[in-house]
Design a protein that fits this description.
The protein is an alpha+beta fold. It folds into 4 domains: 2-66 and 616-652, no CATH class; 72-299 and 572-606, no CATH class; 300-431, no CATH class; 441-545, no CATH class. It is 42% helix and 20% strand. Strands 21, 22, 25, 26, 28 and 29 form a 6-stranded antiparallel β-sheet that branches.
Length: 654
């Protein structure tokens, strides 16, 4: 009877465990990260009665947790990608909206500015029209500055977001380490595991993975090791490694994530470490969108300022004085590495001078003990500063470098030629009479000429501004029909003749007659003229300084012509350069949106597969409740029968 009683009791206990487990599943069905559990029963060892083995009942072998490492790992990968694309799309959408706005974008301001230049050319003697041109220039500068300010706000928002994300990562990593410790202490028997703690840890890992993509490797005593990137540890056993934020050694506005030592020192981690999760999306946004937008906008601003200044300097203002800078020079931002030797006196000054050559890249200047080498970050192209110490400025990619001081071996400087160009874009001319619309030279042919030769208005280039080239008095070129030559050029200047329609230029030494060719371009001392027709012997053509350019707009026409020239990067106009920037950001936003949609689908599929194994089915659990209830009742009936039989035996003995 005692055997029958114990069998019933074991069944009762097993049914009770099943009821408790099923009830636990039902009440936790909506808890994130919960894995379905089941009471696994087994038979107890049978008893040999001499006539065979008789069963002794049942036992609960373990409370099993339905968990599949492959399915959970698949879900982690999908969720990391989803979080990354979602964060990237959310951030880049701000830039996309700003650039695409037809009222606050750059295109309207560029159009208004060049319209102001054209209006001034229509009436160059009017101070009012020149003032209107200055007003449109100020509006353009304000637009550049406001857009740069908006990008700065986005960078501040990015920095804030990265800081809060790092704090969340540290909190979750510490909690995972603590759970590892608890789980290891309760996992002395591999068949009896703290399932609810395992669920809590897996959910924390899932939440952490949404912040930064992680890899999970099983450790001892049911503990796990969590790493990021290419194996950089975040949690090892019950120990977590804290991340921290530090400033770039060359740019205080740029934050770098790294390991934080007990002493508070940050060891930087490469951006590639954060390849997924919200942190990966943020880092990718900064590299491919925020930095690009800032630099490309700056490239347009620097190209416009430098090219407009170069042409403006070749003109004369309303009072006949040479033109100066129309816009203030764009100075490169120089970031001296905080780790440079204290003895270093290296000083770098860099100003954008050629708008057609300046790039949107950053540069690294390094001193190896012998040479100063400038490396372009976009493609790794290296240029050595020669000579050093400098005897004069060196032009590299449209930027004029003046470097002085004594560097120490290992010195590093980051040069950002256009990073702050948009915010620094400003108008230098404040007096409308200082707008240089007139050309500095005039040409004429005396009425006494008997031939049909004509000379054009001529033009000048930057060479004209070099010492000794600017004209101080007029001179005449005289045609010799016998030799078919022109003479009378400045005695100290070589003359270059370019055949009509192009061809190979030919240079003639100073002081020698120059062969005449109808329509050829004749260049000397920064001046270029063309003479057409058939001059007669002794005909003269006068070239001299422009002493009365009040109504002259020839330089203004060249300034307006910059609107349609391929200045930006030497391959795009200002408008098309901005359009390329807008398209780039829009394409990136669209790519991230498509990737985000695909990632949403991948997460949905992975979660569905994982839930089919580990999720709680309430219909199934309701059926289990009835099954265990009936088993409980049946086991109770067995115990009741055993009790009644025992009472019968006792009554027989009375």
């Amino acid at each position: 009877m005692s055997s029958l009683l114990s069998i019933g009791q074991s069944g009762l206990l097993a049914a009770q465990a099943g009821l408790a487990t099923t009830s636990h599943n039902i009440t936790n069905a909506n808890v994130p990260g919960y894995h379905r559990q089941v009471a696994v029963q087994g038979t107890t060892p049978p008893e040999n009665t001499g006539m065979g083995f008789v069963g002794t009942g049942t036992e609960v072998a373990q409370i099993k947790r339905y968990y599949d490492q492959f399915l959970d790992k698949q879900l982690l990968g999908a969720e990391a990608a989803q979080s990354s694309y979602t964060e990237y799309f959310k951030q880049i959408g701000q830039i996309d909206n700003m650039l695409a706005d037809t009222t606050t974008g750059l295109s309207p301001a560029l159009q208004d500015f060049f319209k102001g230049v054209q209006d001034a050319n229509s009436n160059p003697s009017s101070v009012a029209s020149r003032q209107a041109m200055l007003s449109s220039a100020e509006s353009l500068a304000s637009r550049f500055q406001s857009m740069a300010g908006r990008l700065d706000e986005m960078r501040l928002g990015f920095n804030s977001k990265v800081t809060s994300t790092v704090n969340e990562i540290n909190t979750m990593a510490a909690r995972i380490g603590d759970l590892n410790r608890q789980i290891a202490g309760l996992s002395t028997n591999p068949s009896q595991l703290p399932n609810d703690l395992l669920d809590q840890r897996d959910q924390l890992i899932s939440d952490l993975n949404k912040q930064v993509k992680v890899s999970v490797i099983a450790g001892e005593n049911q503990m796990v090791n969590v790493s990021i990137g290419n194996g950089q540890p975040l949690v090892v056993g019950n120990t977590s490694f804290e991340l921290g934020i530090t400033q770039s050694p060359t740019d205080t506005s740029r934050l770098i994530v790294g390991y934080k030592s007990p002493g508070g020192v940050i060891s930087p981690l490469a951006d590639s470490t954060f390849s997924g999760g919200a942190m990966g999306g943020l880092i990718n946004f900064r590299t491919t969108a925020l930095d690009q937008a800032e630099n490309r906008l700056g490239q347009i601003a620097a190209s416009l300022a430098a090219s407009f200044n170069s042409q403006h300097q070749l003109g004369l203002d309303l009072k006949g004085a040479p033109g100066g800078n129309f816009f203030n020079d764009i100075k490169a931002e120089i970031g001296y590495d905080r780790r440079n030797a204290a003895s270093s006196t290296l000083d770098v000054q860099a100003v954008v001078k050629d708008g057609t050559q300046v790039t949107a890249s950053t540069y690294d200047l390094n001193f190896d003990g012998t040479n100063l080498v400038l490396t372009r970050a976009s493609d790794g192209k290296q240029t050595t500063i020669t000579p050093f110490p400098q005897t004069g400025p060196q032009m590299i990619d449209g930027v004029e470098y003046n470097i002085s001081g004594v560097p120490a071996t290992g010195d590093h400087v980051e040069v950002r030629p256009v990073a702050n160009a948009a915010s620094a874009f400003s108008v230098a001319v404040k007096d409308a009479t200082k707008v240089a619309l007139a050309a500095p030279i005039t040409t004429s042919a005396p009425t006494s000429n008997t031939g049909s030769g004509k000379i054009d208005a001529g033009s000048v280039d930057a060479t004209y501004l070099q010492p000794g080239n600017a004209l101080t008095a007029p001179f005449s070129l005289t045609y010799d029909s016998t030799a078919n030559t022109l003479s009378g050029f400045p005695a100290t200047q070589d003359v270059t003749v370019t055949p009509p329609g192009g061809g190979t230029p030919v240079t003639y030494p100073a002081g020698t007659p120059v062969p005449y060719a109808d329509g050829a371009k004749i260049s000397f001392g920064g001046i270029s003229v063309s003479i057409t027709g058939k001059p007669a012997n002794g005909d003269q053509f006068t070239i001299g300084p422009n002493t009365n350019g009040v109504g002259d707009n020839r330089n203004g026409v060249l300034l307006a012509g910059l609107q349609t020239k391929n200045v930006v990067g030497g391959s795009a106009t200002f408008q098309s350069g901005y359009a390329q920037m807008v398209n780039y950001v829009a394409n990136k936003a669209r790519e991230s949106q498509i990737s985000m949609t695909a990632a949403d689908g991948a997460v949905e599929q992975a979660a569905k597969a994982q839930q089919q194994l580990s999720g709680v089915n309430l219909d199934e659990e309701a059926a289990n409740l009835l099954r265990y209830q009936q088993a409980y009742q049946a086991s109770g009936k067995v115990m009741q029968v055993a009790s009644q039989l025992f009472d019968v035996l006792l009554s027989l003995g009375r």
